Amino acid sequence: MRTKIIFSEKCLHYGQYHIEGPERIRKTAEILKKQGYEFLASEPASEDDLLRAHDLEYVWNVRKGLVEDPDTPAYDNIFEFARLSAGGAILAAKIGGFSIMRPPGHHAGRNGAALGVYTRGFCYFNNVAIAVKYLDRPTLILDVDGHHGNGTQEIFLGDEKVMYVSLHRHPNYPGTGAVSERNCLNFPLSPDCGDEIYIQTLDKALNLVNVEKFEVVAVSAGFDTHNGDLASLGLTEKGYAEIGKRIAGLKKHAFFVLEGGYQGENVGKDINTLLKSYENPKLHKASQKRNSSHSHRIRDLGQTMH
C-alpha cells in the first residue's frame, strides 16, 4: 500500500521570508502530487495532545506569542500553525503516513529550548514526540535530520518505552548529541561524509537496537543532509533510497514527520525516493537478510555504544 501524504495549504500562510519558509513545502507538495501520492488534510492537535509532550506554561506561552528567539519568530497565530503541524504528525502516526507539514519540531523540548540550547531552531511543538505520546506504544524514533533532535532527546531521555537514535552532523547546531546517553543513541558525523559512511553508520546504529522490543518506528525525516543543504552530510538520492530500505527491513508500523530540508525541489525528490524504496519489497529484501544475519549482536534497550 502506498504511503499517504499529510498536508494542509494552511501551513504555507506564514513566515514568507524565513529560511524555514513555505516555498520548501509548496515545492515538495507539488512534486509529490505529480508522483501520484494520495494527500490527506491535517487537523489541529488538541491542547491535551500538546500537553503529552510539553508543559502547560510553555503551551500557553506559544498561544500568547511569548516565544520569540533569534532563530524562531513569534509569528502572528503561530499557535494555530504549530498545532496544525502537530496534528499532521498524529495523523501520520495513526495511518503510517508521511506528514510534510511545517513548522518542524525536533528541537522543541518540554519547555521550549532544550538541553541548555538557547534557541528552538525553527520549532514550536515537538511534532514527532506528540505523535509518539499519542500512540503510547513501544517506539523506536529514528532521527535522520542533519541536526541533533535535542528536544526529542530531552522529552524521552530515560523513557523505557522509547529508544531515540540520531545520526547528525557534528559539530553543528544545536551542539548536543556528541555522545549517547541511556536510551538515546547519538551518532555524530563529519560534514559531507557521503552516502557510504552514512549508511554504514545507520547499519551500526540499528544493530544496537533490539527491534523486537518495539511496535512502531517514528522517523524524524530531515533532508537538510542532502549535499549542499543547511546541514549537508553529502547525501544523494541513492543515500535516501538506502535509508528507505533500512526502515522497511525493520518490518514495523512506521510513520514519517518532516523536519529540515531547505531546498524544496530536492526535498520532494528525496521523499519520493525514500518512500519508493520503503514501499517496494523487492528493493528491501537484501536489507532484511542483512538485518537477520546481525541479530546475534542486538543489544537490550538503553545500552549505548559510548
What does this structure look like?
With 306 residues, the chain is α/β, with parallel strands linked by helices. 37% of the residues lie in helices and 12% in strands. It has ten helices and eight strands. Strands 2-1-3-8-7-4-5-6 form an eight-stranded parallel sheet, with helices on both faces. The chain is globular. The termini are far apart.
Please supply descriptive tags for the structure shown above.
306 residues, alpha/beta, 8 strands, globular
Offer a quick outline of the entry:
By secondary structure, the chain is of the alpha/beta class.
Topology at a glance:
Elements: E1 5-6, H1 22-34, E2 39-40, H2 47-50, H3 56-64, H4 78-95, E3 98-99, H5 127-135, E4 139-143, H6 150-156, E5 162-169, E6 184-189, H7 195-206, E7 216-221, H8 237-249, E8 253-258, H9 264-279, H10 281-293
Parallel strand pairs: 1-2, 1-3, 3-8, 4-5, 4-7, 5-6, 7-8
